[in-house]
Amino acid sequence: MADFHQSGSIATLHNLRTRSTEDMTRELSIFGERRKINLILPSLFSELEGDALPAIIDELNTVPYLNRIIIGLDRADAEQYRYAREFFSRLKPQHEVLWHDGPRMKAIDERLQRLTLSPSEPGKGRNVWFCIGYTLAQAEAAVVAVHDCDVVTYSSDMLAKLIYPVANPAFPYQMSKGFYPRVADGKMNGRVSRLLVSPLLLALKKVLGPRDYLDFLSSFRYPLAGEFAMRTPILPDMRIPSDWGLEIGILSEAWRNLSPQAVCQVEISDRYDHKHQDLSAEDATQGLSRMSVDICKALYRKLAADGTVLSEEVFRSIKATYFRMALDQIDTYYNDSLINGLHLDRHAEETAVELFAANIMQAGQVFLENPMETPFIPNWSRVNAADPDLMTDMLAAVQADRDEFG
């Protein structure tokens, strides 16, 4: 992917293979002396038992510029939290484990519920949101990066490339988003991005007409990438989605809060693979089926907030246009796979497109039945205004968990 292409909407920073990770790391260490850099790792307890996370820790132990690593731990009981503290104890950078299912963090959440400010459902968005709040409460980091804990091809140079655009004070970027090819086991992956988001954005433009917001999203080579880094001053006003529309929701917030010149995407890897979700065609509450519905709803809400009138007839047109464009793109992906010696199962691809087409309508129906639904978690500026002591108490809760179980 070493090219020079620029879309014109946001900056694309390529990896031209002309600079070593060691050289970039030395410069990041200099930046980190004055602009502290934190990393957020949203994690399920089950990921501690997989193959990816131990290797990620090994890589992070080679990184000298991180000020602190904040691990958001979900779906863990007391014994599992104790195990997690031991598991992460070999991390060399300073680190904290936020036990979201512990009684102290649940008490923090109950205060938020009484104020109607609590995240509406569990998931990655809720995890990241609490970790951001903890970071803001500490008031020490100038840059915060986020990536997943299931990346089986992880290396420290991915983190360096992701962070560099926002850590370098000479650059104007407030947010950077990673991109990479999703290729593993001799096949092309990234089904939701390839077969839903890309043709859906084309269909929305064709049906609704030109929209700067749609052009903005289309500029990202991999809009569903879970790797992003931000300068801390933008975090208090950022509303994080609680459902599986997290990545699209964060890009939508960047569109709302930042100029395009303050956003970039950066090529962070030649090869990327992580845990794969099932298509889950039989259960719309699981897997890629649920993810596709949440992504569609996130797009519809943002378009409606910008004044676009959506109706059942419009959704039917979007579905039909999407279906044709998605099938055409399968031909392109097949040819791309063939020239690169990869296997692509056309039947599986078309099955996914048929499911996504149905979910485009399902998401539209949900939107029409409940247009006032607000899955975005309130931003931390509002939380601080409603309960000025909550962030300090959250610091104390994490410290108390550490003292009791350390």
TrEMBL record:
> Keywords on this record?
Transferase
The organism's place on the tree of life at top rank: Bacteria
UniProt-recorded Gene Ontology molecular function terms:
transferase activity
Q: Which InterPro entries match?
A: Nucleotide-diphossugar_trans
What is the official name of this protein in its record?
A: Glycosyl transferase
Task: State the species of origin.
Answer: Marivivens donghaensis
